[in-house]
Write a structure and sequence with these properties.
The protein is of the alpha/beta class. The protein is about 40% helix and about 20% strand. The protein has 20 helices and 23 strands. Strands 13-12-14-15-23-22-21-18-19 form a nine-stranded mixed sheet, with helices on both faces. Strands 5-2-6-1-7-10-11 form a seven-stranded parallel sheet, with helices on both faces. About 50% of the residues are buried. The structure holds glutamine. Glutamine binds next to strand 19.
Length: about 550
Amino acid sequence: MAKYIFVTGGVTSSLGKGIIAASLAKLLQARGLRVTIQKFDPYINVDPGTLNPYEHGECYVTEDGAETDLDLGHYERFLSIYTSQANNVTTGRIYQTVIEQERQGVYLGKTVQVVPHITDEIKRCMRILGESGNYDVVITEIGGTVGDIESLPFVESVRQLQWELPEEDTVVVHLTLIPYLRAAKELKTKPTQHSVRMLSQEGVHPDVIVCRTERSISSDLRKKIALFCNVRQEAVIESLDASTIYEVPLMMMREGLDTIVMKKLHRTGKQEPDLSRWSDFLHKLKNPKQVVSIGLIGKYIELQDAYKSILEAFVHAGAVQETEVQVINLHSEQLNASNIQDQLKGLDGLLVAPGFGHRGVEGKIEAVRYAREQGLPFFGICLGMQMAAIEFARNALDHKKAHSTEMDPQTPDPVIALMEDQKQLQVKGGTMRLGAYPCDLKPGSLAERIYGSTRISERHRHRWEFNNRYLEAFQQAGMQASGVNPGSGLVEVIELKDHPFFIGVQYHPELKSTVENPHPIFVHFIRAALERRNLATSSRPRKEAVES
Ligand code: GLN
């Protein structure tokens, strides 16, 4: 039987509930337990797929094609496990199910209400993964902040589950903020007391309180929090601001978070979590021997969460090579033919990011051109790959008006076009090409060398595709389709023959990069960038020589 850990948040949002949940999961996994994490989000959207990245950051896609919250990305990166549709549930999805059942007459004429019908459906979803028999522990992160109107049914469901299950089968971890008041030179516990009181009023009492703070909490203060919030003193856990999220599992281990949780759940496992690989990664991450700078060309760069998985994949790929990856954010709307050289000079590699709509695409195309002509390592993801195809058609094949029909439906040269099955669709949510698809790589290609395999599987999230009408002309001019979907023949990878490193992928490799398995394209891209940097440094005249 699985045990259930619930993680709630108080005082304010953005305290890092997802990272605390993922860190606890990592520690339990490192003690030999089978762990998964799920996130329950209080908003009414059925999934975050239709949300603008400015609203909600990146939309993370799972193997089974679910469009989910970006916290699931952290879960996968920390645990090296796959999550699925079952790991992300929203209020919208709960209501959708209940309303569909009501229309089918499932409730036999009863009045359908938040309690018990909505809470029953929430509880059913909370227990699905636990009942699969695949896990010893299921961690459920409740989105939002305790006291919000929207999160009430979720907290109520936790209360009911605690009442239904044996005492040793559930733990509630509450994450709060202990603010430091500079004028008073003091850490303040009152907001935490209030938020625990609010949670208790809703019927749930936390077993563990994790205190996010910028200053260390003294033992007197811990005692005070324990007393006023009615938890044992060792259940008051300090979570100091960390220099990297990857430090948090080790910090939580030092604080004994996993020990206290194991004790409450009556679970036995290894005495100590085995985090040797994790520590090795962290050591390399914090002690880089070299540095590369990579330009990230996107249109949502003001909001770093929009490119979360890409940024994390750089961290993983840099660390294995003991290299610090400096990501230089460049707004695609501000790039044009006349400033491109200036904007991109000094970079060791260029990544053109995924995206939707026409805003900023001409800047992306200019950036691709620069990388192609200057031999700058280039990596295009999804829209980035499509931009590389358009640039090639325009400037190498002389189809000056080549475009994607997403941006220019009337283009005479639609090198990127919609497949027939996408043309008919009216509904927006969940209708893109989503989730894992197989891909065959050409023997001897850069892609095959990178993966060390001719059959791979990667995750997709897009509607438009490379138009195979142009394939022959592309290949003849030196841009080959090195990755193709075995069933449909759709082009998934393009690469340039006479270039140090130029690859575009229709899928999203960043979604599968984890701490323990950095993604090979990111690893090879950083390697190519390092080579370029070293070449540039060795061919640059030495300073003394220039001066003399
Ligand atoms: N807008 C493009 C499409 O839908 C690319 C999507 C993406 O970059 N994820 O095909």
